[in-house]
C-alpha cells in the first residue's frame, strides 16, 4: 500500500485503496499479507507495456517518487519490512543504476542497507545490489559513493570467507578514499582490510592496518573509529600470543564505547575480550563476555554476530565441561552460519561439536567432524581454525592408539603456526607433539617440546594451556623417573584446573591419588 501511494503521487490513500480493491475484485492483482499485492505474470507484462506508453516526464516523475519513497522508508524500517521488501529493493536499485538521472538513488539506497546486509546475511542479494550501485557510482563519477560501495561489497565477501575478493575490494576502496582526501572512508576501508589479514593468519599486517586506521580516526576526530581501531589491535595482539596486551586494548576500547553509549559496538569488544580471557584460562569471565554477545545479537537480530558469539560461547562451555550446552550452542551456530553463508563460523561450529564428541569418548564421530571442519577451513584459508582442528585430530587419533597419524596432525598444526605470524596455539601444538613423542617412547623429544611449550604459556599467561602442558610434563617425568617425581607437576596442574573450573580436574585427581598411593 505505501509503495502504491508513492507511485500514484497526489491521490489520497483512500483513493488508492479503492482502486486496489477494484483490481482485486477483478482478479487482476492478488492480495498478500501485510497490505501487499502481487500481479499475475501476464498482467504484470501488460502493465509494463502500458507504463512504457506513458510520456517520459510522467515515467520519470513516477520513478523519482518510488525511489524517494524507498530511500526515506528504509532509514527507519523494521527488519521484517526490509526482509519483505528485499527483492523489490534489489530490483529498484538495478533499475535506478541504469539511468544517469536516478543513479544516485542506487548508491544511496545500497549504502543505507549496509547494516541490514551485515546483520541478516542475504549475501547474493547484497552483492547484486553492490554491483549495480558500483556501476552507478562510476557512471556518475561519484568516488565517495564508489569507496563506500566497495567497502560494503568487501564486507559481504569477508562474511562469505572469500578473503581474496575482500582484499581486492577493500584495497580499491582505500585507494579511492585516499585519492579524494576522505579520512573517514579511508579508515573504514583499512579497518576491514586489517580484519581480513587477521583471518588469514597475518596479525602483523592487521596491526599495521589498524594503526593506520587509528591515525586516520584521530585526524578526523572520530572517537568511534578510534575505539574500533584499538579493539582490533587487541584482536591481532592476541593472535600473536600477547594476552594481557590484548586485554588492555579491549578494555580501553570498551571504556570509550561505553562512554559513547554505543551498545552495538560493544559486542565486538566483548567478543575480543572474551577470547582473551579464554586464552588466559579465565573461563568464567570468557563465558560471561560471550553470553552478553549472544544476548545482544539475539535482541538486535544480528545473525552474523550471533554466529560468532555462539561459536565462542560453545567453545568456552566445552572447556568448562558443560558439554550439553556447548553442543546446543554449536548446533545453533551451525544453523545460523549456513543460513547466512558464513563458512568460518560453520567450520568453528563443526570443530566444537567434534571436540565435545572427543571429550565424551566418541572418537570416530569426533574424527569425522574434525575432518569436515578441516576441509572447510582449508577451502577458505582460515588458518587459525585449521591449526586448532589439526590439534583436535591429533588428540583423537592418539587416543585411538594411531600415534603415527596423530604425530602428522600435530606437526601440521605447528607448521601452520610457523607459516603465519600466529602464536596463540603454538603451545597447545607443542604440548600435543610432546604427548605423541611420549607415546612413541621418544622421551628426549617429548621433553624438549614440553619445555618449550611451558616457557611459552608462562610468558603468555595462558593458564589453561599451562595446566595441560604441566599434565603432560608429569606424564613424561613419570615415564623417565617414576610417579613420585611426576607428582609436583600434576599438583601444580590440578591447582590451575581447579581454579579455572576445567573438567580435567576429575581425571587428574584420580591420577594424583593413584600416584600418591603407589
What are the defining features of this structure?
518 residues, 83% helix, two-stranded antiparallel ribbon, 27 helices, mainly alpha
Give a description of the structure:
The protein is an all-alpha fold. Among the domains are: 1-50, no CATH class; 54-122, no CATH class. It has helices at residues 2-8, 13-25, 41-52, 56-74, 79-97, 103-112, 114-120, 123-140, 143-159, 163-179, 183-199, 203-220, 223-239, 243-260, 263-280, 283-299, 303-319, 323-340, 343-359, 363-379, 383-399, 403-419, 426-440, 443-460, 463-481, 483-500, 504-517, and strands at residues 29-32, 36-39. The protein has a two-stranded antiparallel ribbon. A hairpin with a 3-residue loop joins strand 1 (29-32) and strand 2. Helix 17 packs antiparallel against helix 18 (323-340). The longest helix has 19 residues, at 56-74. It is elongated. The chain starts with a helix and ends with a helix.
Amino acid at each position: 500500500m505505501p509503495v502504491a501511494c508513492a507511485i500514484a503521487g497526489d491521490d489520497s490513500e483512500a483513493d488508492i485503496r479503492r482502486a486496489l480493491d477494484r483490481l482485486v475484485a477483478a482478479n487482476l492483482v492478488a492480495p498478500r499479507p501485510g497490505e501487499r499485492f502481487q500481479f499475475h505474470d501476464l498482467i504484470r507484462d501488460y502493465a509494463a507495456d502500458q507504463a512504457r506508453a506513458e510520456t517520459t516526464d510522467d515515467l520519470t516523475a513516477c520513478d523519482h517518487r518510488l525511489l524517494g519513497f524507498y530511500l526515506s522508508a528504509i532509514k527507519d524500517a523494521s527488519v521484517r519490512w526490509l526482509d519483505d521488501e528485499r527483492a523489490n529493493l534489489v530490483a529498484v536499485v538495478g533499475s535506478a543504476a541504469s539511468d544517469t538521472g536516478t543513479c544516485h538513488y542506487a548508491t544511496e539506497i545500497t549504502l543505507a542497507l549496509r547494516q541490514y546486509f551485515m546483520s541478516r546475511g542475504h549475501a547474493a542479494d547484497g552483492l547484486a545490489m553492490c554491483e549495480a550501485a558500483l556501476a552507478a557510482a562510476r557512471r556518475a563519477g561519484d568516488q565517495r559513493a564508489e569507496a563506500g560501495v566497495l567497502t560494503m561489497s568487501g564486507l559481504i565477501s569477508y562474511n562469505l570467507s572469500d578473503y581474496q575478493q575482500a582484499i581486492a575490494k577493500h584495497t580499491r576502496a582505500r585507494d579511492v578514499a585516499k585519492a579524494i582526501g576522505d579520512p573517514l572512508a579511508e579508515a573504514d576501508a583499512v579497518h576491514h582490510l586489517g580484519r581480513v589479514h587477521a583471518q588469514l593468519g597475518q596479525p602483523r599486517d592487521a596491526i599495521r592496518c589498524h594503526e593506520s586506521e587509528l591515525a586516520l580516526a584521530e585526524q578526523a576526530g572520530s572517537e568511534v573509529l578510534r575505539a574500533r581501531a584499538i579493539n582490533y589491535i587487541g584482536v591481532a595482539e592476541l593472535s600473536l600470543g600477547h594476552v594481557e596486551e590484548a586485554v588492555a586494548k579491549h578494555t580501553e576500547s570498551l571504556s570509550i564505547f561505553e562512554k559513547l553509549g554505543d551498545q552495538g559496538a560493544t559486542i565486538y569488544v566483548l567478543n575480543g575480550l572474551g577470547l582473551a580471557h579464554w586464552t588466559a584460562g579465565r573461563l568464567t569471565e570468557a563465558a560471561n563476555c560471550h553470553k552478553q554477545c549472544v544476548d545482544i545479537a539475539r535482541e538486535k537480530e544480528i545473525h552474523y554476530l550471533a554466529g560468532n558469539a555462539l561459536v565462542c560461547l560453545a567453545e568456552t562451555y566445552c572447556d568448562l565441561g558443560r558439554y550439553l550446552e556447548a553442543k546446543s550452542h554449536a548446533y545453533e551456530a551451525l544453523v545460523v552460519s549456513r543460513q547466512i553463508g558464513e563458512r568460518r563460523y560453520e567450520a568453528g561450529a563443526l570443530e566444537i561439536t567434534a571436540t565435545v564428541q572427543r571429550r565424551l569418548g566418541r572418537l570416530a564421530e569426533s574424527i569425522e567432524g574434525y575432518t569436515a571442519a578441516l576441509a572447510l577451513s582449508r577451502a577458505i584459508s582460515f588458518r587459525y581454525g585449521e591449526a586448532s582442528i589439526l590439534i583436535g585430530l591429533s588428540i583423537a587419533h592418539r587416543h585411538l592408539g594411531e600415534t603415527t597419524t596423530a604425530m602428522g596432525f600435530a606437526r601440521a598444526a605447528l607448521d601452520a603456526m610457523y607459516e603465519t605470524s600466529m602464536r596463540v596455539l603454538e603451545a597447545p601444538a607443542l604440548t600435543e607433539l610432546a604427548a605423541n613423542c611420549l607415546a612413541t617412547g621418544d622421551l628426549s623429544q617429548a621433553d624438549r617440546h614440553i619445555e618449550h611449550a611451558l616457557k611459552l604459556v608462562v610468558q603468555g599467561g595462558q593458564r589453561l594451556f599451562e595446566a595441560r602442558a604441566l599434565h603432560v610434563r608429569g606424564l613424561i617425568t613419570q615415564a623417565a623417573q617414576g610417579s613420585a617425581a611426576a607428582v609436583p607437576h600434576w599438583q601444580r596442574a590440578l591447582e590451575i584446573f581447579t581454579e579455572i573450573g576445567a573438567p580435567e580436574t576429575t581425571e587428574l585427581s584420580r591420577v594424583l591419588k593413584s600416584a600418591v598411593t603407589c
